[in-house]
Every structure is written in C-alpha cells, then in structure tokens.
Design brief:
The structure holds two protein chains of two kinds. Helix content of chain A is 39%, strand content 30%. Chain A is α/β, with parallel strands linked by helices. Chain A has one domain: STAS domain (Transcription Regulator spoIIAA). In chain A, helix 1 links the parallel strand 2 and strand 3. Chain B has one domain: Histidine kinase-like ATPase, C-terminal domain (Heat Shock Protein 90, 2-Layer Sandwich), CATH 3.30.565. Chain B is built from three helices and five strands; from the N terminus they run βααββαββ. Chain B is globular. By secondary structure, chain B is an alpha+beta fold. Chain B is 33% helix and 30% strand. In chain B, helix 1 packs antiparallel against helix 2 and helix 2 packs antiparallel against helix 3. In chain B, strands 1-2-3-5-4 form a five-stranded antiparallel beta sheet, with helices on one face. The chains are: A alpha/beta, B alpha+beta. At the A-B interface, helix 2 and helix 3 of A face helix 2 and helix 3 of B.
C-alpha cells in the first residue's frame, strides 16, 4: 500500500509517494494535496523517487493536484520520476504540464 | 513458448496486486525480455483490469481471468471478464487538463495491438506487445 509522507523545504511542501500510485492509492494522494492546499500550502512537490508504478488514476490525482494548486495561486511540480512514470507521462502527453524535475532540490530551486 | 502465466480473481481494487505480482514473476523468470516491454505491458494490463473493476456491476461480483504467454517475438495477454459490454473501448487520449478517461487510451498506446470483443456474456481483451 502506498504511503504519502509530507515534509517542508522552505516554502514548498514535499509529498513523497512510496509504492504504486494506482487506483487503490490515488485517493490518498488527492487527500494529502487537498489538505496541504486547504492549509495554505500551495507550492507542492510530489517526490516520485519511491513510486515504482503509476496508472491513469494516479495521473488523474496529479492533474487534479496541479489544478488545485494553481487555482490557489501556487503550483505542483514532480520530482525524481522513475522510468515507468516517465514513460507514462510521455505517452499521455502529461509531460507537457507536469515536467519531471530530476530531484526535489531542482524542483524547489527558484521558488 | 517460454511459459504461461494466469490470474483468476474477483474484479475488486484489492486484487490488482495479483497482476503486479504476476508481472514481477514474469520479469524474474524471463530475464531476456526487455524491461521496457514488460513495463509497458504491465501498464496496459493494469488499465484493462482497472476498467473491469470500475465498470463491473454489481460492484465486487465480477470475475476475470488473465493469461499471459511469453512468446519468442511477443507478449500476448488475454483477459476475459464477466462485466457488462463496453461501448467506448476506442476512446482517444483526453487533453492534459482532464482528470480521468485515460485508462484505455493509455493501454492502447502502450501496446502494439489491443483487441476487444464481446463474446456471449463476456468481454474478451487481447493485448499484444511485440518484443523489441
């Protein structure tokens, strides 16, 4: 079962997803993003270093999170995506809006 | 043929791990299959199974069988489910702002061929990924 661990770096909130980000786990990420944005944290980094697999439900959670963060005046960035995640982002064209940063450090740089 | 792999289970979110476990076993037992091929095949299988789980009525009562053959030139998957007929199996990839509707489109682009047929009271899916 995927776990979401939340931490902060400067103004950014980092949500680390460990495991498979699938139909079963996507609601957990959606809730974590909702909670962060409701609490006024609108600069979000989803750390995918420990995410071995993503499906269309997981992608939906990322798109929803991106929209939620932008509506609140912030943004959502993804970092450290592994090979399957990168391929799926590419195949669905979502790498146009969710550009994968190489690391969490790169993602928060300049924020 | 290197071997046959099979899962027969209830279409509920909790059993999707059986498919991931099966693909892990295929990976271990067939080190000659390119990891990209298996990765994309797994992506497609999970999307098809997600679809069965999501559209199966009454929820939690539908069963499916998935069989994977590792052949010398391709990965061949067949999934048979007792869910209702599907009318939108050729949906195109939604725009980037859409929060859903990508499942079958993603399965299609991850494979070389995705077939769907209604046979009697079952849906029959055929998934082919040519080995690179």
């Amino acid at each position: 079962m995927m776990q979401v661990h939340t931490s902060t770096i400067g103004d950014a909130t980092v949500l680390r997803c460990d495991g498979r980000l699938t139909m079963v786990a996507a609601p957990t990420l959606r809730s974590a993003i909702d909670e962060a944005v409701s609490g006024g944290q609108v600069r979000l980094v989803v750390d995918l270093a420990g995410t071995s697999f993503v499906d269309s439900s997981g992608l939906g959670a990322l798109v929803a999170g991106l929209k939620r963060a932008r509506q609140a005046g912030g943004d959502l960035r993804i970092a450290s995506a592994q090979e399957q995640v990168r391929m799926v982002l590419n195949l669905t064209n979502l790498d146009r809006i969710l550009e994968p940063f190489d690391s969490v450090g790169d993602a928060v740089h300049g924020w | 043929m290197a071997g046959e792999y099979r899962v027969d289970t209830l279409a509920v979110p909790e059993t999707l791990n059986l498919l991931h476990d099966l693909l892990d076993r295929v990976r271990e037992e067939n080190p000659d299959v390119e990891s990209t091929d298996l990765m994309l095949f797994e992506t497609a299988v999970i999307e098809i199974a997600n679809n069965v789980v999501e559209h199966g009525v009454p929820p939690g009562t539908i069963r499916y069988t998935f069989v994977l053959d590792v052949e010398s030139d391709r990965l061949l998957g067949r999934l048979s489910d007792g869910g209702p007929p599907l009318h939108e199996h050729e949906r195109s990839m939604p725009g980037t702002d859409s929060e859903n509707g990508r499942g079958l489109a993603l399965a299609r682009v991850a494979l070389d061929d995705l077939g769907y047929e209604r046979v009697g009271d079952h849906n029959e899916w055929t998934m082919v990924r040519r080995r690179r």
